[in-house]
């Protein structure tokens, strides 16, 4: 028997966790001598109060949808992929190599090519940890952490020594060709005859991210492979007994996870920076963990949680601009969300389950 | 490369390995008791910040050390609560702790000092004097101005010269080795090295150690014997907190003079790598952290290491600990087998 109704499990537990995280964040803001109410007002105004704010919120959300989906897919196979950061960085390299080496005449051609590059490089970076987990039993959490650091060092080397244009001082690649620039949402709005979100980086990759959500949903809940992934994640011995090959599932799940993390680069590297810079991921890979946990490992939840974190990210930037609260407040909120929705899940869930059990008992009596 | 250069590199390696060794032993206690700890980084960062903050406000490094220990223990308590009491996912809790420390240190640092997340430099001088003036004023009301001035005079860990260091210097090889590499470090370096045999003794020669190891391999058997799994695991997590506290305090008040944003710079993860390298054994931890400390020392000294045929870029040197760990984990150079019950919350049977 279910201990509590599905809606409570899906909606109530993450909401209570979020309220707890926000409550403690408010205490932190109080402790540093600022007003939490004013801070929230500044954030809402800065992130959602204008089409400019929305433009940035949606841009960040696009990044987090990709990294959140990446964590989610691996999580269904019971694999905790903390390597999104490194995989996304490698995805950026893939995008840069494709766009700098292929002279593509139009963005509609460049986008699929860059997507292939991003996904392939991200997936390749997840392949070794996946293989080591599946074949040699090395813990995927440790190997993906190590691969984040190795990716950072490798990218640093490649940017400084190989991709940096002659005569340039900053460790970044050359600009991508003009023809490969992705259309911004603001341009699309203009061509439809109204002005929306001028000078914001949100671009066509947002729609790619939304499509990715739908495809991941189809994959996990409506396909044979998805069933195998979930079965493997729920119980490895049972999956083995049902003839599911654990090596195959581990590797496939991690490849998809790495590919999704890598796809983030079409938004940040191709859509925004239009060249590969050092540290292009800026922690989005880690935010994916919070997004997946908050979103209850469901694409719709991931989408909503990514919007929430997009709002927090843009709002946090505005906070740092207008008040004396540093940007790092967002990292604290992110940590608390991970803590409450991930590690302290039982603290919220068990009392809730008790309440529902008690209510059900009374109805029966 | 002459003897002097080698001695300098070794000396620097000893300094750089100390925080790694302390953090590695912290991880050893925790993971041997069956609690994964990827929050070493965060605990060290919190300790470094608390230690530097209190040392900067009081001018007394020992008060700073206590604050560092408390800061780290606070995060250990969160980890224990999440992973032992509420049986949550230990890895997720560790990730959360790392972010919590990374955010809180900057937030609080900006509030207290307004220097963009760093603390003032801990070198004695005018800046520190104005900083510690309120504390000295408050203290001299209680203990008298002389004691107050004296108490606020040592904001950093001082280097200790071991006995006979200068007398023995003329002895070839051994003399300079003793005087330059072994002597002349702060007390926490010697504490860290002493922790290795002590940890070995505790783990393999005491009842507590036996139970600690058992609870990481087979908690049910410990429970059956009537020993509390919860209490043992909390003890292990607390010891890990104290050791991370020492590591962080050394980082901010011994190795450098003050706290800067993200100053641990991945050391917690290198310590984790060293722990795997050491196969969860104390003497192995000494060897592994020395190796990683040496790598860092060499990389600092020769940013681009010229080996004659090829030039090794500094990025490769900084990535080497992680690459080595992956190779070890892959089991190509001896297998590293973690404690069997690691990462699993213990559910008492009803």
UniProtKB/TrEMBL annotation, chain A:
GO molecular function, one term: transmembrane transporter activity
Topology class, membrane: Multi-pass membrane protein
TM spans (from-to): 12-32, 52-75, 110-128, 140-160, 202-221, 249-270, 276-295, 302-323, 329-352
Coiled coil: none
GO cellular component: a single term: plasma membrane
InterPro entries linked to this entry: ABC_transp_permease
Main location: membrane
Keyword tags: Cell membrane, Membrane, Transmembrane, Transmembrane helix
Subcellular location(s) per record: Cell membrane
Protein name: ABC transporter permease
Source taxonomy: Bacteria, Pseudomonadati, Pseudomonadota, Alphaproteobacteria, Rhodobacterales
From TrEMBL, chain B:
Superkingdom of the source species: Bacteria
Residues that span the membrane, as ranges: 12-29, 49-71, 91-109, 187-204, 234-257, 269-295, 315-333
Bilayer topology: Multi-pass membrane protein
MF terms in GO: transmembrane transporter activity
Keywords of the record: Cell membrane, Membrane, Transmembrane, Transmembrane helix
Subcellular location: Cell membrane
CC per GO annotation: plasma membrane
UniProt xrefs under InterPro entries: ABC_transp_permease
Alphabetical list of PANTHER family matching this protein: GUANOSINE ABC TRANSPORTER PERMEASE PROTEIN NUPQ, SUGAR ABC TRANSPORTER INTEGRAL MEMBRANE PROTEIN-RELATED
UniProt protein name: ABC transporter permease
Protein species of origin: Paracoccus sediminis
């Amino acid at each position: 028997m279910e201990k509590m109704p599905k809606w409570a499990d899906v909606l109530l537990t993450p909401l209570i966790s979020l309220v707890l995280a926000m409550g403690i964040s408010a205490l932190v803001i109080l402790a540093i001598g600022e007003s939490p109410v004013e801070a929230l007002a500044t954030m809402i105004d800065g992130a959602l109060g204008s089409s400019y704010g929305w433009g940035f919120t949606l841009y960040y959300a696009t990044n987090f949808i990709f990294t959140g989906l990446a964590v989610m897919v691996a999580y269904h196979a019971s694999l905790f992929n903390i390597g999104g950061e490194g995989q996304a960085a490698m995805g950026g390299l893939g995008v840069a190599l494709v766009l700098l080496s292929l002279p593509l005449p139009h963005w509609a051609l460049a986008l699929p090519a860059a997507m292939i590059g991003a996904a392939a490089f991200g997936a390749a970076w997840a392949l070794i940890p996946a293989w080591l987990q599946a074949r040699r039993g090395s813990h995927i959490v440790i190997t993906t952490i190590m691969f984040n650091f190795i990716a950072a060092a490798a990218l640093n080397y490649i940017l400084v020594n190989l991709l940096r244009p002659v005569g340039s001082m900053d460790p970044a690649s050359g600009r991508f060709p003009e023809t490969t620039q992705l259309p911004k949402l603001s341009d699309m709005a203009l061509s439809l005859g109204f002005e929306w979100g001028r000078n914001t980086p949100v671009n066509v990759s947002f729609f790619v991210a939304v499509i990715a959500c739908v495809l991941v949903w189809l994959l996990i809940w409506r396909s044979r492979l998805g069933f195998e992934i979930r079965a493997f994640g729920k119980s490895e011995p049972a999956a083995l007994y049902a003839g599911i090959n654990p090596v195959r599932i581990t590797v496939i799940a991690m490849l998809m996870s790495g590919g999704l993390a890598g796809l983030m680069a079409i938004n940040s590297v191709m859509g925004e920076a239009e060249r590969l810079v050092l540290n292009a991921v800026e922690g989005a890979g880690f935010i994916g963990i919070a997004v997946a946990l908050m979103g209850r490992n469901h694409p719709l939840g991931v989408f909503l949680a990514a919007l929430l974190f997009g709002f927090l990210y843009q709002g946090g930037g505005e906070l740092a601009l207008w008040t004396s609260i540093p940007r790092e407040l967002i990292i604290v909120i992110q940590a608390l969300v991970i803590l409450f929705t991930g590690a302290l899940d039982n603290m919220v869930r068990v009392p809730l389950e008790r309440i529902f059990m008690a209510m059900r008992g009374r109805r029966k009596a | 490369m002459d003897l002097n250069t080698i001695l300098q590199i070794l000396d620097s390696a000893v300094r750089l390995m100390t925080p790694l060794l302390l953090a590695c032993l912290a991880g050893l206690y925790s993971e041997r008791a069956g609690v994964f700890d990827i929050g070493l980084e965060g605990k060290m960062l919190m300790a470094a910040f608390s230690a530097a903050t209190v040392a900067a406000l009081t001018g007394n490094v020992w008060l700073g050390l206590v604050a560092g220990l408390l800061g780290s223990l606070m995060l250990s308590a969160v980890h224990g609560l999440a992973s032992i009491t509420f049986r949550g996912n230990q890895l997720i809790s560790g990730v959360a702790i790392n972010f919590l420390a990374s955010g809180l240190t900057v937030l609080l640092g900006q509030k207290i000092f307004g220097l963009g997340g760093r603390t003032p430099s801990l070198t004695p001088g005018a800046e520190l004097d104005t900083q510690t003036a309120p504390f000295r004023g408050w203290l001299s009301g209680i203990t008298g101005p002389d004691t107050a001035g004296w108490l606020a005079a040592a904001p950093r860990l001082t280097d200790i010269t071991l006995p006979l260091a200068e007398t023995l210097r003329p002895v070839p090889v051994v003399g300079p080795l003793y005087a330059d590499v072994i002597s002349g470090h702060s007390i926490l370096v010697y504490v860290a090295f002493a922790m290795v045999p002590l940890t070995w003794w505790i783990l393999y020669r005491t009842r507590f150690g036996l139970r600690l190891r058992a609870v990481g391999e087979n908690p049910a058997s410990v429970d059956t014997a009537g020993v509390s799994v919860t209490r043992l695991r909390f003890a292990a997590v607390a010891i890990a907190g104290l050791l991370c506290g020492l590591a962080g305090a050394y980082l901010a008040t011994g190795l450098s003079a003050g706290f800067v944003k993200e100053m641990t710079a991945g050391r917690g993860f290198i310590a984790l790598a060293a722990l795997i390298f050491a196969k969860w054994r104390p003497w192995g931890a000494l060897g592994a952290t020395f190796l990683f400390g040496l790598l860092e020392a060499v990389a600092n000294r020769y940013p681009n290491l010229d080996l004659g045929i090829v030039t090794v870029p500094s990025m490769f040197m900084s990535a080497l600990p992680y690459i080595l760990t992956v190779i070890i984990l892959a089991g190509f150079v001896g297998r590293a087998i973690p404690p069997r019950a690691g990462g699993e919350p213990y559910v008492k049977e009803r």
